[in-house]
Amino acid sequence: MQTLNILGAGRVGQTLGRLWHSNGVFAVQDVLTNAAASAQSACDFIGAGTAAPTLAAMRPAEVWMLAVPDAQIAPVAGVLAAHLQAQAKAVTASSPHVASGADSAQPPRAPIVFHCSGAQSARSLSPLADLGWQPASAHCILSFANAEAAVAQFPGTACALEGDASAIAMLHSAFTAIQARCFEVQSQDKLLYHAAAVFATNFLPVIQSVAEDAWLATGVPQDLLPALRASLLNNAVANITRLGPAGALTGPAARGDVVAIAKQAEAVTQWDAQAGAAYEALSALALRLAKRKTETKATPANSH
Predict the structure, then answer these.
(1) Do 290 and 253 form a contact (C-beta atoms < 8 A)?
(2) Full-model pTM
(3) How far apart are CA 185 and CA 176, in angstroms?
(4) How far is the C-alpha of 191 from the C-alpha of 207, rounded, in Å?
(5) Which one, of 130, 175, 223, lies nearest residue 183 by Cα?
(6) pLDDT at 106 over 90
(7) How confident is the model at residue 93 (pLDDT cuts 50, 70, 90)?
């Protein structure tokens, strides 16, 4: 069983660490966070691992997971690479025969290192790649709002892999073992891939907030909002799940009513300029979706 070190152990690190430990995929070894108490808490949740007080205290491992926020991936990779270089120099200085080639033992295989960002590619780990490490990224399309819930929800989760071919092969096996559905993404497509997830999830609360602000501005009672929110969102999700995006589309765009769209866009813009711009952009996309639906329906009849 390969050893796994974890740098940063928030909800993602804890979820994956626990799943891999409980399924016998990795031997979770050392865990380092920005506070000893949080590292120990992560080990307790995972059910394995040793809380490392410093980077220097971490033992060598075959696999390293950088489960840190996106902005910290490159800096942490740089710090780890610098530490490894300093460590190698110290060993060479204390044992000159190692550098001279007197030791004919087979060199250990380069470790695999990966991060969990959806937007960043394996290039963020270039300081470690320069040392011969095998870099990759693995992004799970799942809300990790709570680690306990994420562990229960994880089976069937889609997981995007990208980076070094050998690292991808190992990660594919590791994630498949915890019931993820893995696929590969090209490095140059990571930003668009992650933006798709933003469209699918992050913008929904924003759009709902704009809708409720507009309702309040037009006199809809505040106490009606929770019921409107629940019924409309539940129905929309059920329709999209059952019929797909095109099949679930309703409203003026679905009817091709560009006159109604223009009038409503003007009204929204008068109320809030940014919301008006968003209404126009989303309406244009809705019209494109409606057109695609019409063309799809026409294709079978025209293909014979």
Answers:
(1) yes
(2) 0.80
(3) 16
(4) 22
(5) 175
(6) no
(7) confident
